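Re: the multi-chain job from yesterday

Posting the exact lines I submitted so nobody has to dig through the queue logs.
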Amino acid sequence: MRGLDPQAALKDMLLAGLVALGLFAPLVGLRTDVAPTGALFIRTRWTDVAIIVGLVMAGRLAMHIFLARREARAAMADLSKPGRFATQAAWLARILGPVLLGVALLLPAIPGVGRYELDLGILVLTYIMLGWGLNIVVGLAGLLDLGYVAFYAVGAYSYALLAQYFGFSFWLCLPLAGILSAFWGILLGFPVLRLRGDYLAIVTLAFGEIIRIVLLNWVSLTGGSNGISGIPRPSFFGLPFSMEGGPGTFAGFFGIEPSPVHRVIFLYYLILALAMLTNWVSVRLRRQPLGRAWEAMREDEIACRSLGINIRNTKLSAFMIGAMFGGFAGAFFATRQGFISPESFTFIESAIILAIVVLGGLGSQIGVAIAAIVMIGGFELFRDLEEWRMLVFGAAMVLIMVWRPRGLVGSRQPTVVLRERRRIGSEHVAEGRG
Amino acid sequence: MAYALQQLINGVALGMIYGLIAVGYTMVYGIIGMINFAHGDIFMVGAFVALITIVLLLSGGIMEGPGAIMLVLLVSMCVTALYGWTVERVAYRPLRGSFRLAPLISAIGMSIVLQNYVQVAQGARVKPLEPIVPGGFTVLTEGTFVVQVSWMQLVIVLVTLAVLAVFTWLVTRTALGRSMRACEQDRRMAQLLGINTDRVISITFVIGASLAAVAGMMYLLRYGVIDFYIGFLAGVKAFTAAVLGGIGSLPGAVLGGLLIGLIETFWSAYFSVAYKDVATFAILAIVLIFMPTGLLGRAEVEKV
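And the result, structure tokens for all chains:
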């Protein structure tokens, strides 16, 4: 087809440079600083602006060259051959799940994996679990929830408060936190039964913010912005992890040298087990009438209602089960950190979890896991960038979305099939309409 | 009585700012049906551009009179409009025609980008600015309580009304407004009839961003302190206002903004400042539960 038109590309490059100049000259070039007197003064940074504008222009030119080459190559390629890439990808998707699970199970035993790697693993697994939990609400039931972090907060505070005021142990609180979160899921689900799409999104966002603001301001109960500290750490089924190594402790009971790594390994396997539980429950539910009702409701609510499915119960059960897993993850978060405050439950957390679900490809279990590894692991990789880190994170979100709007794993296997099992291209599935 | 009057004045001034931002949300939602999550941060960018221009003019010693304020407003609107245009071009246009959640996630990403970009470029510290338009006049004195309207509040209300008047004229009387309304009704049909829909959408973002810039500058002049994080809460409240008024409806957005501003001010005045956001969000939830399309929204007819 048409190759690179140098004149048009050059013109476009200059235009991009001009736009970049307009964008960056005021905000990057003129930096306002507070002088010791308290007044503002301006520091100019024209070299930075010049560098950025140069980069934008070079990037635009590179994009043109790349696009022209790709177009030329696409014109040359024989389109009649079936795409080898597609079959490879299908094979990869089948094998990836077990491989990832194997790596996750063996991670603490891999040589060279220390405390830092395990902590990162715990963090990633927490987000995988949250992603799978939200996936039930957004991916399966198609209810756009922007306040999922509220249930995470309810779980965390349930455990922290029950342990603080009544001295309950972690193992007693874990189910209680799940039940309480599920209860809140129903409570917040009730008013929004009639709402759809973006209205649902904004009301769930509002609920998330309300819970956070209440936690922040109810100082007598929650300690406000100081949070709750000294949350008891979990025990190994009654055997505490202690450095003394007495007969009643984990190390003493098994006759091994006490080490702080034991607790980290235990926490790692705990969150792995919780995450796998979430996965197992959602995979099983998808095959049952309830899960099918969720998926049917996501595709078409009116058709669903005409076929006699109880929309109210279906929606509430999705909110409830999604919230329950959020609550489990919250209780785990509280016991791992030993300290919680409303700071940890801001809207940005909800946004990150939703981004993981959407980037992973809605409804795809393995996709959510990959997205969590990429986003949270990548976020950790850029740790040295400090304040640039969130900038890179946001840019990555935009870029992945533009590159693959359907998420990383965009196709899916239908749950119920007639005769032949086929993969459905992502263009044909609708979701998130609420 | 005097106390309530003062709160009413404060609430209207705040509500106008929310209303201006809400118009941007509601327009974008009307035309392409997406929540432009980055709009609150566009408002923040507008406030920052205004701040930079004011400091620049102050150091040149020419920050005087209404002319200077108009200049600041103009610069802020132009630069912010460019940001709005770029955000649409980079993050939303490639996703046009994609499924519904894709632009939302992209918008949330863009919001994170804008916030952190301003934090990196302008620093995380709060920027204080001495009052540009000081003083005001007394409306009423009741005992020791004096009801005051500051000049700034008056400027906010007048500028907002003027901007909205221009904007309403633009949407209802011009060819551009006609094509915008056509796109809102049926984008594909509008395209078939020869409307350059991509251009109309770009212009919508440009107008929305420049209205947000007006709001940003008003916010800066009224409160005197801004930081890179003001966009989030203002954005959420403005979106709440848009939904409350009925999303897609322009008068609804202004009405919603005014209501949110009044609720917030009265709640902080009579109950507690700490829970003012809870009050706002709770009222949003209640209104939506009983009127799912908002106050002035059209009920959507669902075709099967």
